[in-house]
Amino acid sequence: MELIFEKSVSGRAGVRVPMSDVPKAAPLPDALRREDQVRLPEVSELDLVRHYTNLSRRNFSVDTNFYPLGSCTMKYNTKVTENAGGLFASCHPVLALLPGGEALVQGPLSLIHGLERQLAEITGMAEVTTQPLAGAHGEMTGIMVIAAYHKARGDNKRKYVIVPDSSHGTNPASAAMAGYEIVTVPTAPYGDMDLDLYREAMNDEVAAVMLTCPNTLGLFNPHIAEICAIAHETGALTYYDGANLNAILGKVRPGDVGFDVIHVNLHKTFGTPHGGGGPGSGPVGVTQSLIPYLPTPRVVRKEDGSFSVEDHPEGIGRVSDFFGNFGIMVRAYAYIALLGREGLIEVSEQAVLNANYMMARLKEEFELPFDQTCMHECVFSASRQLQNGVHAIDVAKYLIDRGFHPPTVYFPLNVKEAIMIEPTETESKQTMDAFIEVMLEAARLARENPQRLHEAPVTMPVGRLDETRAARAQQVCCE
Amino acid sequence: MGYCPNTPDDIRQMLEVIGASSVEELFAPIPAGLRAKSFDLPPGMSELELMRLMREKAASSGADITPFIGGGIYDHFIPAAVDHLASRAEFYTAYTPYQPECSQGTLQALYEYQSTICRLTGMEASNASLYDGGTAVAEAALMSLRITGRHKVLLDASVNPLHREIVNEYLHGLSAQAVEVAPQGCASDLKRLMDSIDDQTAAVIVQTPNCFGSVQDFRELANKAHEHDALLIVSCYPIALGLVASPGEMGADIAVGDGQSLGNHLSFGGPYFGFIATRKRFIRNLPGRIVGETIDHQGRRGYVLTLQAREQHIKRHKATSNICSNQSLCALRGLIFCAALGQKGFGELAALNYDKAQYAKTVLTSIKGVELLNSGATFNEFTLILPRDAAEVVQQLLDKGVAAGLPLGGYYPGMERALVVTVTEKRTKEEIDRLAVLLEEVLWS
Q1: Distance separating alpha carbons of residues A192 and A468, to the nearest angstrom
Q2: DSSP character for B269?
Q3: By the 8 A CB rule, do B403 and A101 touch?
Q4: Mean pLDDT, to the nearest integer, of B352-364?
Q5: B230 to chain A, minimum CA–CA distance in Å?
Q6: Chains A & B: contacts with CB separation below 8 Å
Q7: pLDDT beyond 80 at B437
């Protein structure tokens, strides 16, 4: 498809700019003026609408295709919560910073406070901040809170953060941005971080250990409480990456298990749309003793029941411009209110049921490195298919031809040719059966006609793209 | 209740296949002692009840206040097509385009977005968005440390105070330092900034227009920075770039800013998007996702996420940033906004902002005791000195339904009488005149 710039016709007008009702002002001095007009496309409104409507049709999405992308929790995004998100479109955040302005924005402030309380109860933490703008931003914020805690205690020798080798890349990257060196602990043959090696790595120079539970293999680590206790014995804190919270809603609360800091991804567990890569939202929860170090400002409920925005002087400072991705927070708040206690419990139960069903049906044909009851996702390996020269990526591309978004492939890194499937609770048995049939078909093709898989996809506007060429050419904008 | 479609019969059949007797049995791997101690949430509700609750909250969100406030976030007109196109579920319910063949919609849109940001800022390479304006400035600061191997940035204190807080927060853990240089009146103190650049300086960070609304020429500053192999980072307000010289024209090495003003609703602080663009030679130091053009085996043009070896999922703790999710959908809105206005319309919109603010300047400074603090040019914001405490005045005017501006006392001690007034194209002459009448009333009657 042509680029919007290639559809531009000089002199063609787009949307009309509002009329002026004031006199034309004296121009800016030449040195401060832009030399030429910004080279934006000149298209009619219909050109514009057709271009982006047709572009959108070149996407798979949850609303059009089953999207079992492991570790991303691509559940259905409820429509009423979208409507709720739009209700605050014209609310200016700076109003809250004006003297007397808080009184005007009690609605949004009560909503932020309400979401913080909902999330604190769901995760078993004492307090929550909604300021972080995505999961990784939450991780960085959480680790900064941990750093501030140690520093306030005069404990300045801690310079390491421990992560398992199966962790999301954001964990070590976030800890590094907060100034820590990373110690990586390998996975044991049983699928979890090696407990003995972890014990060896833990000492009083470690600030924190970061974990996902269930882990990235979709398995619940039975030693999780022990891992927390080992950290606490040396004075280290424990960080819970909430990427997989969907599996344990109402069943386990990280705070009860012994985690000190957590983040949750509203765009995973709480049903807000992924937007083609964002916006997300990554609220952070902490235990009582870490509350002083949360970022500033805090939304506080006063004795008279009204809400105010207050500085948090001992805190780590500001990590984003205002109160977080508020529009996303509205959707999550509405989602939690809509589902309620029973609905959220149903979410984790059905997510786990769906994943185990998928696992049970596919393990005949696909290698299952850790054959045990899984939580919300299961990880296969394409190692059997590899004997016929078929890789996980070939299976993934074939799924595209059959109308399914592929699972996550090649993650986690500790499984060779990994295929990570997370169906989520919002998919029906019938949809999963259709997907399973295609997966089994791919396994058959791997034996009988591997070429078909290597050629996939053949039904999309483009076939497999040359990534090496892209990296070499570095063509990232049009001339 | 949980939007779970499986019927009791489906569930029974699935359990049979799994070989479990109940759903609860699937949770057996969780040790009994680790079960939730509480899960005290209210029961769910219907859509009707939910929307009643949400409308109640939205009723108290200051929607009837006429805003003359900015602070980096601006009340601009949004063409209807932006909402309609960005509401296409194929865009908003998709995820990161890791599988390019079934994500060409998002990928091509992001490539067009990157192209648009380059054209706006006068730069050569943009990423696919960052979180917001403040974190974009912070990421640019970190980027300059990586490029130069140095540990200090000079931070002009006329950069948005909220953004400066974030820069300080990001640098803090890395034993790097932001040295702030106080402005002179409403302008960056260019002489002191230039004198402060030394061979330890990674970058100088300035903003255009700055938080007092002033627009300045940074060309000399850029040259001075480059003499010391330091970078110039310019944070900019994209709507202003329809009129004001771009960071590229000013000699900047990195341009950043908040993209909210490009088609994103105010929405009480987000979601917006941050943008970052640079010279082609620094492309490998950019944080976050980048979309690149390539071809498939038949030579058909397509787009992929590229240069991923910089990113956390590959490089882990050695990545250029920890960012994973960005603000893709907001960036898409920014793109559609720019394309909807087009080359001519975008310039006209900027000019309209400038004209309206100039008109407001004239009207407001004709009030007794009200003076303009900016000595040079401004875009759509300017700073007034009032005869008394600006915070008090703002509070009194809020009661009359007008947010008259942002008082600076809380951010710049000694500037308690200073007020930054913002006038976008959405403010009518009538609203501006009314602001003047009300301000005069509050000050003098």
Answers
A1: 34
A2: G
A3: yes
A4: 98
A5: 22
A6: 715
A7: yes
Report DSSP state, residue B263.
T
Cα separation, A470 vs B304, in Å, equals 7
Q: What is the CATH number of domain B66-76+343-444?
A: 3.90.1150.10
Contacts of B301 (CB under 8 A, 6+ apart): A462, B293, B294, B295
Strand partners, B177: B152
Residue A195 has pLDDT above 80, yes or no: yes
User: How would DSSP label each residue in B183-201?
Assistant: -BTTB--HHHHHHH--TTE
Chain A, nearest residue to B129 by Cα: A278
Provide the token pair at B273. 């998007």
Residue B40 pLDDT > 80, yes or no? Answer: yes
Going by pLDDT thresholds of 50, 70 and 90, the confidence category of residue B173 is confident
From chain A, pick out residues whose CB is under 8 angstroms from the CB of B67: 92, 94-95
CA gyration radius, chain A: 25
Q: Is B363 on the interface with A (CB under 8 A)?
A: no
**B304: number of Cβ within 10 Å:** 26
What single string gives the DSSP state of each residue in A98-134?
STTTGGGGHHHHHHHHHHHHHHHHHHT-SEEE----S
Quick: pLDDT tens for B113-140: 999 999 999 999 999 999 999 999 999 9
Q: What is the pLDDT of residues A444-456, one digit of tens each?
A: 999 999 999 999 9
In this predicted complex, what is the ipTM? 0.98
Best residue of B151, B276, B278, B322 to probe chain A, by most A CBs closer than 10 Å: B322
pLDDT at A413: 85
Measure CA of the first residue to CA of the last residue in chain A; give whole Å: 17
Q: Does B353 touch chain A (CB under 8 A)?
A: no
The domains of chain B are located at 66-76+343-444, 80-337
Q: Is B182 buried (19+), middle (13-18) or exposed (0-12) by CB count in 10 A?
A: exposed
For range B181-207, the mean pLDDT: 97
Among the listed residues B211, B209, B207, B208, the one whose alpha carbon sits nearest the alpha carbon of residue B161: B211
| Topology (CATH) of B80-337 | Aspartate Aminotransferase; domain 2 (3.40.640)
Instruction: Count other C-beta atoms under 10 Å from residue A236's C-beta.
Output: 25
Domains by residue range for chain A, with CATH: 81-338 (3.40.640.10), 344-455 (3.90.1150.10)
Q: Would you say B359 and B351 are in contact if contact means Cβ atoms under 8 Å apart? A: no
Q: In Å, how far is A334's CA from the nearest CA of chain B?
A: 7
Task: State the pLDDT confidence band at B445, using cuts at 50, 70 and 90.
Answer: confident
Average pLDDT of every residue of chain A: 97
Q: Which of A122, A362, A456, A368 is nearest to A265 (CA)?
A: A122
